[in-house]
């Protein structure tokens, strides 16, 4: 069986799946993917950025299994001017979030405040309030629970306004635009992959 590996820049307001309500924006709208290719993990409908797709289960498991500590970096625009204390709390792995109805203590992460990254404009602009500033962080995780980044920033008092997955392993969305689909080699994500 031929193995396929794709990277896409998932646009805002698209589901990370191939089937759904006929009015929904779906992955198959971007490209005619081979039938047995599926996304590795998900990004929720309102999140953007890098999504990998493959029909190689071994590769998929290597990317998803937290034991392999493959990092995923997110650029996150948050409400208000985030504080050093909040960045420290996001890094330390002491935050508890709700996952599947249970409390989950997040793993240590890497968080730093950054200047606004050079990203394409979002198709639906972020709500702008003149009296309330926003700020950006780069947040690198080794795990990926459902809506984890949003839950983490909310837990430290800085709700997420815009969430863009910048990288998985070594592969980034540099030079990609929303809706782009590229066929890749798995070594671009995990060096020395077979």
TrEMBL record:
Domain of life of the native organism: Bacteria
Annotated GO MF terms: catalytic activity, acting on RNA; pseudouridine synthase activity; RNA binding
Pfam family, one: PseudoU_synth_2
Entry keyword Nucleotide-binding: no
One of the protein's GO biological processes: pseudouridine synthesis
Keywords: Isomerase
Keyword field contains Translocase: no
Annotated ranges, domain Pseudouridine synthase RsuA/RluA-like: 5-155
E.C. no: 5.4.99.-
PANTHER family: PSEUDOURIDINE SYNTHASE FAMILY PROTEIN-RELATED (PTHR47683), RNA-BINDING S4 DOMAIN-CONTAINING PROTEIN (PTHR47683:SF2)
Similarity field: Belongs to the pseudouridine synthase RsuA family.
Protein name according to UniProt: Pseudouridine synthase
Species in which this protein is naturally found: Brumimicrobium aurantiacum
């Amino acid at each position: 069986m031929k193995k396929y590996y794709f990277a896409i820049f998932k646009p805002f307001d698209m589901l990370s799946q191939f089937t759904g309500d006929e009015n929904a924006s779906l992955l198959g709208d971007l490209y005619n993917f081979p039938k047995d290719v599926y996304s590795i993990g998900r990004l929720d409908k309102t999140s953007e950025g890098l999504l990998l797709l493959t029909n190689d289960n071994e590769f998929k498991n290597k990317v998803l299994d937290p034991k392999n500590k493959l990092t995923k970096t997110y650029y996150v625009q948050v409400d208000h001017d985030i504080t050093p204390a909040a960045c420290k709390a996001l890094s330390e792995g002491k935050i508890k979030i709700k996952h599947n109805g249970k409390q989950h203590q997040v793993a240590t992460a890497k968080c730093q405040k950054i200047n606004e990254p050079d990203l394409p404009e979002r198709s639906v602009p972020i709500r702008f309030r003149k009296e309330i500033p926003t700020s950006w962080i780069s947040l690198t995780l080794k795990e990926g629970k459902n809506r984890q980044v949003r839950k983490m920033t909310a837990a430290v008092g800085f709700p997420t306004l815009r969430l863009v997955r910048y990288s998985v392993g070594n592969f980034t969305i540099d030079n990609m635009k929303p809706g782009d689909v590229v066929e890749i080699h798995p070594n671009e994500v995990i060096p020395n992959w077979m």
